[in-house]
Amino acid sequence: MTSPRALLTAWNIRAKKQLGQNFLNDPNMARAIVDKAGIDDDDVVLEIGPGLGAITVPAAAAARRVIAVDKDGRITGLLATELLAAGIDNVDVREADILRVDLASISDEAGQPLVVLGNLPYNISSQVIVQLIHARSGIDRAVLMLQREMAQRICAGPGSKEYGRLSVMLGYCAQPRMLMQVRASLFFPAPKVDSTVVGIRFADPPVFPAHDERLLFRVVKAAFGKRRKTLRNALSQSDLDLDPPTCERLLESARIDPMRRAESLSVSGFVRLSNIIGTHRQSLETCG
Q1: Which residues are recorded as binding S-adenosyl-L-methionine (predicted)?
Q2: Which pLDDT tens digit goes with each residue over 205-226?
């Protein structure tokens, strides 16, 4: 397809900084991203933020169907027109805010789990990743281009400064890994930082399944909500309705030192802790 600069000029469109619009300007990189996703002609692809179609075109050549969702109506109109002119007829371009889209309904419509592709703006990337986690029963795998900092966060392990709530949530149900780096100069307009392509394959079931997944994610949020505090203090000062002595007892029951901090606890440790807390809550309900 035509270069981003030429297309935007021809359509009299300016990239919107508030939407994180930095358009990939390297067809070789776009093809490499599609190759990393391992797309074949049986796959249905959901592309988040297709922009001007750099990744859309090679994805459409590989997949049975592509559903491309973009919030900007100026861009969806341009993209649909360019795809039509190129004779590409297996792409469904939709104007929508991905954060308001029911991903389960798209998977149901496709009749199979989706392959998700996306060049995610930094300001919504964490929200989209959480959305994918909750909708993962309808998603087989995802290949996402993220700002390097975000990629480091979601792929981080215990003990690192990047390890946090997203690291645990995603590590609970998936195997994220960094696939390749993308220089800022390969985009138009060029962002201030480089990007990283991350591959995510969801595990079904998780390696360490929680008895109550919603409670697990609440425990993780509480633990990292005050990450400079010990687990005992962070949990007792959260909305989990646990006093300090109870937190200490439950942590010890889970074989976790109450003086440890959240960033030192593995995914399996968080699962073990949430299961213990869940049992405690059930016992209170039974007694009540």
Answers
A1: 22, 24, 49, 70, 97, 119
A2: 888 999 999 999 999 999 999 8
Residue 145 lies in a domain: yes
Residue 172: CATH number of its domain: 3.40.50.150
pTM over the 0.90 mark = yes
Residue numbers in the known binding site for S-adenosyl-L-methionine are: 22, 24, 49, 70, 97, 119
Give the residue numbers of the binding site. 22, 24, 49, 70, 97, 119
Distance in angstroms (rounded) separating the CA atoms of residues 231 and 224: 9
Residue 72 predicted with pLDDT over 70: yes
Q: DSSP letters of 64-121?
A: SEEEEEES-HHHHHHHHHHHHHTT--SEEEEE--GGGS-HHHHHHHHTSPEEEEEE--
**Is 207 part of any domain?**
no
Listed residues 167, 202, 237: the one ending a domain: 202
Task: Enumerate the H helices of the chain as residue ranges.
Answer: 4-10, 27-37, 56-62, 73-85, 103-110, 122-134, 148-155, 165-173, 213-225, 231-236, 244-253, 267-287
Task: Give φ, ψ of 23 to 5 degrees.
Answer: -95, 130
Domain boundary among 146, 181, 202: 202
Strand-pairing partners, residue 80, are: none
Q: Which residues have a Cβ under 8 Å from the Cβ of 120 and sit 6 or more positions away?
A: 20, 48, 49, 128, 144, 145, 146, 150
Q: Both 135 and 222 in a single domain? A: no
70 and 158 share one domain: yes
